[in-house]
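#lab-general

N.A. 3:47 PM
ok so I finally got the sequence cleaned up, no stray characters, all 424 residues accounted for. can someone with queue access submit it? mine expired

B.Y. 3:52 PM
send it over

N.A. 3:53 PM
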Amino acid sequence: MAVSQLDIVSKMKILEEKKIKKIEGCTVMCQMANEEWHEAEILSHKEIRGGTRKYYVHYKHFNKRLDEWVVESRIKMDSLAAPVVEKEEKKLTKGQRKRKKDTAAGSTAPKKEATQAEKEKQRAPQSAGSGSLRAPGSHDDVVSRMKNIEEIEIGNCRIKPWYFSPYPKELTLVEVVYLCEFCLKYCKSETAFRRHKAKCTLFHPPGNEIYRKDDLQFYELDGRKHKAYCQNLCLISKMFLDHKTLYWDTDPFLFYVMCTVDDRGSHIVGYFSKEKESAEEYNLACILTLPQYQRMGYGKLLIEFSYALSQVEGKTGSPEKPLSDLGLLGYRSYWSQAILELLRELKEPVSVIEIADMTSIKVDDVLSTLQHLNLVKYYKGQNCIVLTEETIAAHDKAMAKRKVRIDPSCLQFTPVDWPKRGAW
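B.Y. 4:20 PM
back already:
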């Protein structure tokens, strides 16, 4: 079904009748790619040839990766509705009014000079915005809500990005952005990309190779020493991670890049990053498997590798919290398989703390996983871990799908005590 395009006079009349001054933020019925009609929010618009317009829309109750530019024929302009203005807050109580007044007075009071300790704390890297698995915050604005890159080419694949990424403005004006799969440098034309390939001397990520088995490799990169590569890596990951906020300040982080190797070099599959110093003992801040390698088990392999590093370090670890819904699903699947695999091998009773020590999974995560699997039973005055036949069968079925595993004997990794080392 196609909606006839409205002329400018008709559109202006609709806007006047509905008392709408600005079309951005309005809701409208829009036809999706599957030809179904859904309510959408108009984020922006632009004129195209022939005097018609395109509208950038976000389909309500759908993931942002489905946002797109649509022509006027896919919009029912008659259904245009003004943005809903949020109702004013309820009348404040006397106590609330007093606290609000005190807060306002405090904000206008002259600020005391910060102490040396406070200055150091302000300069210290903040971990709150470094991860992609963390639950979404409220950092959205109109610009970052719109995809700005049409398409990228990396290796033999062309991929349409899902989200906004802060690449230079000139790259947003071209149809395809070309990325070198070895150094991750971006080029705005195929000619420039060919010139770069002729000069590029890299055939694998910079940094130290710390793992290799068959055609699988892992490289460890220091965010300070390999700043350009790590920044380009963050730009790529932002195209596929909605809530990633780390772009340029890579100094406090280590990056672990997973590659598949052949006679042409090492081809990036995915990566994860972690803080050099984490007060909460997080062993992972951000994780990404490139779209062309997703649903192939590489995500779980990255998680398994992060815990293999924790085991060498001799401590338990956990991803940055709170986890998003998708992050929790991925980790809970790994935790379940790791814990059940251990329980099946053990012949003697084991405590939760011992499970944490043997798997490097934090005690809190072990407890939440056991409770999720409904394995904790109360028996004769104490809590016991009980495996059922159904749980064992489901575990065996899941493990049969994991063809590739991390082999600890192939890991060449020496932990660094960053607090003692001092400067990063």
